[in-house]
């Protein structure tokens, strides 16, 4: 991967290209024991695409800190998040005793550490993340940082961490009308749905944002249970849209 934080990539990317480039970014980072950034606007499916790619990496080797750290991750919360993801280590959890064991576990076999919104981490938290990578030497863990579009600016205050970034990949918004090509990956429910209904839902607030489509799909599955049907109709689409969008379009109930 060679993207820089200042290179947005193609203006109208093909959705399959978006998927393949995301998979390539994840796997090349893992294979190279590198530190990379995958970023993009909220709601475009960044986390969904990355976690689908992570499912194709050996599961026990992914240390996913997403949801295990506080939004303002400190050194202490990062350390405890790692301990939650690793096999039980001897107590008491003093840093001088635990940190070498964490490093040993992360380097005995290839691992990937996944962090969400590192720009919100404390300075000590970012230094600890950098230290984990540096201490691995020839067997260092790969590190994948997932974030919003301001991550290049947010890491300006951490030049030593920023200098270790091997690749930057921006996930662009899905082009209009291209949503159906990726929906099958969300849920088998979409395989036989009328494409016009998909276009209708996209035009009424989902706007190609995979994060919204994922939530909408969950509500649509619930709708099939509520209305006791397996057929996706306009009525079910409207029902699910009204529960997905904060400000649903007029007429949706």
Would you kindly provide a written description of the structure presented here, covering whatever features stand out?
This protein has helices at residues 15-32, 46-54, 75-85, 95-108, 123-135, 151-154, 159-162, 180-183, 195-206, 210-226, 234-244, and strands at residues 35-39, 62-64, 112-116, 142-147, 165-170. The chain is an alpha/beta fold and 253 residues long. It has 2 domains: 15-170, P-loop containing nucleotide triphosphate hydrolases (Rossmann fold), CATH 3.40.50.300; 180-244. The protein has a 5-stranded parallel β-sheet with strand order 2-3-4-1-5, with helices on one face. Strand 3, helix 5 (123-135) and strand 4 form a beta-alpha-beta unit. Helix 3 packs across helix 5 (123-135) and helix 9 (195-206) runs parallel beside helix 11 (234-244). Residues 6-10 have low confidence and may be disordered.
**Average residue pLDDT:** 81
- Beta-sheet strand percentage? 5-15%
Order of helices and strands: HEHEHHEHEHHEHHHH
Strand order of the largest sheet: 2-3-4-1-5
Specify the helix fraction band. Answer: 40-55%
Under CATH, the topology of the largest domain can be stated as: Rossmann fold
The coarse silhouette is elongated
Task: Give a short synopsis of this structure.
The protein has 253 residues and is an alpha/beta fold. Helices cover 46% and strands 10% of the residues.
Key terms:
single chain, 253 residues, alpha/beta, Rossmann fold, 2 domains, five-stranded parallel beta sheet
């Amino acid at each position: 991967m060679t993207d820089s934080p200042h290179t947005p990539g193609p203006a109208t990317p093909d959705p399959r290209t978006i998927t393949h480039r995301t998979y390539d970014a994840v796997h090349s980072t893992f294979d190279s024991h590198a530190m990379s950034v995958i970023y993009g606007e909220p709601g475009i499916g960044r986390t969904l695409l990355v976690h689908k790619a992570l499912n194709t990496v050996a599961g026990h080797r992914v240390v996913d800190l997403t949801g295990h750290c506080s939004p303002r991750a400190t050194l202490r919360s990062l350390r405890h998040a790692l301990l939650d993801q690793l096999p039980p280590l001897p107590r008491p959890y003093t840093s001088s005793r635990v940190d070498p064991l964490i490093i040993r576990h992360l380097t005995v076999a290839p691992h990937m550490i996944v962090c969400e919104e590192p720009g919100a981490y404390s300075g000590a938290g970012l230094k600890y993340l950098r230290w984990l990578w540096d201490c691995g030497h020839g067997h260092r863990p790969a590190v994948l940082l997932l974030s919003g579009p301001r991550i290049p600016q947010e890491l300006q205050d951490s030049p030593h961490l920023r200098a270790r970034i091997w690749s930057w990949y921006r996930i662009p918004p899905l082009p209009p009308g291209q949503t159906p090509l990726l929906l099958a990956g969300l849920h088998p429910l979409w395989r036989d749905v009328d494409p016009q209904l998909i276009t209708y839902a996209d035009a009424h607030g989902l706007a190609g944002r995979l994060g919204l489509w994922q939530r909408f799909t969950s509500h649509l599955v619930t709708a099939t249970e509520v209305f006791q049907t397996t057929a996706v109709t306009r009525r079910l689409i409207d029902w699910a849209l009204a529960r997905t969008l904060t400000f649903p379009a007029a007429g949706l109930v």
